Amino acid sequence: MTYAPAAVTRLSLLVDLASMLAREVDLDAMLDDVTGALATALRAERATIWLVDAEQGDLVTRVAVLPEVGQLRQPLSRGVAGHVASHAEVVRIDEAASDTRFDPSADSRTGFVTRSILAAPIREGAEAPVRGVVQVLNRTGGPFEESDERYLEALGIQLGRALAMTTLRAEDVSGPGLVLRGPFNRIVGRSPAMEGVYERIALCAQTDATVLLRGQTGTGKTLLARAIHVNGARSGGPFVTVDCTTLPDQLVESELFGHERGAFTGAERTVPGKVELADGGTLFLDEIGDLPPSMQGKLLRFLQERTYERVGGRTSLTTDCRILCATHHDLERRVEEGTFRRDLYYRVRVVQIDVPGLAERGPDEILRLARHFADLYAARYGRPEPRFDPSALAALVAHSWPGNVRELEHWIESAVVLAPDGVLRTDRFPDRPPGRTVAAGDGVLVPHDLSIDEARAAYVRATLERCDGNKAEAARRLGVSRNTVAKLAATSSR
Ligand SMILES: Nc1ncnc2c1ncn2[C@@H]1O[C@H](COP(=O)(O)OP(=O)(O)O)[C@@H](O)[C@H]1O
Ligand SMILES: [Mg+2]
Predict the structure, then answer these.
(1) Ligand nearest to the CA of residue 241, numbered in listed order
(2) Residue 309 · residue 275 · CB < 8 Å
(3) Using CA positions, which residue lies closest to atom 9 of ligand 1?
(4) Residue closest to 285 by CA, chosen among 246, 318, 313
(5) CA–CA dist 385, 209 (Å, integer)
(6) Mode of pairing for the β-strands spanning 322-327 and 437-440
(7) C-beta of residue 51 within 8 angstroms of C-beta of residue 63
(8) Ligand 2 centroid from CA 406, angstroms
(9) Which CATH superfamily is 192-354 part of?
(10) Share of the chain above pLDDT 90, in %
């Protein structure tokens, strides 16, 4: 091959795409990486990925957590990208200035001079709806060739398949375009309640600071911890989890720090600890609130000095790892009770991220997550495209979700397994929620057989959602105090 480096980049681009998909990567960063590699692979001066925004019905250059940042937007009727998106065909132009489909207004805004253009639709297959456009400009050493065209067309389909597996996929898979379900791949949710969480995840990922994730079980703490790791400088290193709840006291130390051969009966060889395995990466101490008191001092010393000894060993060892922790416990109370060391508490709590419970995120988020899991499990179990029975949607919104996202995931998995026809119904949920529903006044769905308290809680949550999670505003509308809103919204519906 004459152009070996470009050919290698072409292949590795496809491989990278596949590996990035398995992770909780920041989608924005992923698209940036892809365009960078693509420009190199096709020896182009510039590469752009346009996405069809299904909500607005136009083209956007990138998808950001804050939609207004650094984004180009244009109607589907304009320019080469618009043509590719609306006609679903590849366009190759040798001389932009003499082509009527070319829109020179972007150049005059940016100062860039477009000569040659190659653009292909992003879609899952040749007949599938268009999700976006991948475009390269100004090939060095002559216009784009036939082989470039075939490559870009294939890449457009790879990208389409890739996006279908991310949170950046269509709400309605049979229609065109994409909807941003969450800012990170595999993390769904755009509720106001989660916005601050995502912002902190992104900021923490830029640094090596110790972070404590707090929230009820099943809220996504483990998933978010992984997101901090894979979006940071250590993403190439290991992510090692220590679950502090499942370990008997005597084993915690050896699990964390390893042991020497002969350290205790049965220790037939030297075994490295999790701390050592996490070298160059991240050590995630899950449920740190459950760490036995006997270990808290040893962990504190490790956090302060980054040195440790294996069980039965005398040499001081050191390791370079970033620490993330999570807990569902009220650590302040544990400190007061004396079951959690105060100095350790201060050490792990450098930056704190409070992950809200599922019910606090509002009905839209519950339904968005439900659709996400339905698609996920339907694909996994080979079920037809899932559809929700209206009563099932109402039941999902009315439930109080004490088990949070994990509980929702189990409900949906169960319903998908029990639905060979793809229809998700309440009687296919594991824990049968109230069945029939009525529509109340302005559209809040409240199931028939709720108690007054349960119905009130559902109504308060709906109001809160309408106020974008603003408790003070919801309190004003409902004519009660802010605390009452918080208390009522948290009332269990079962
Ligand atoms: N925002 C989310 N989007 C998609 N899946 C989620 C989300 N939050 C949680 N999950 C899924 O729910 C389950 C529970 O999440 P997990 O991170 O284990 O919770 P925790 O550690 O707080 O108990 C996991 O299967 C996880 O992938
Ligand atoms: Mg967890």
Answers:
(1) 2
(2) no
(3) 220
(4) 246
(5) 43
(6) unpaired
(7) yes
(8) 10
(9) P-loop containing nucleotide triphosphate hydrolases (3.40.50.300)
(10) 56
Tokens of 457: 């809680």
Residue closest by Cα to atom 17 of ligand 1: 220
Q: Quote the pTM value.
A: 0.75
Helices (DSSP H) in 129-179: which residue ranges? 146-164
The one-character DSSP state at 355 is P
Residue that has been written with the tokens 């040499």 in this structure: 315
Sort strands 44-53 and 132-139 into parallel, antiparallel or unpaired: antiparallel
Tokens of 178: 């994409």
Residues with CB under 6 A from ligand 1: 187-189, 215, 217-223, 369, 405-406, 409
Domain 4-180 in CATH 3.40.50.80? The answer is: no
pLDDT of residue 477: 80
**Residue nearest (by alpha carbon) to ligand 1 atom 16:** 220
Q: DSSP secondary-structure letter at 98? A: G
- The token duo for 279 is 């070298």
Q: What are the tens digits of pLDDT across the range 441-463? A: 455 666 656 667 767 777 787 77
- State the CATH architecture for 359-489: Orthogonal Bundle (1.10)
Residue 230 near residue 23 (C-beta atoms within 8 A) = yes
Structure tokens that stand for 76 in this block: 């589907």
CA-based angle 78:80:84, to the nearest 5?
100
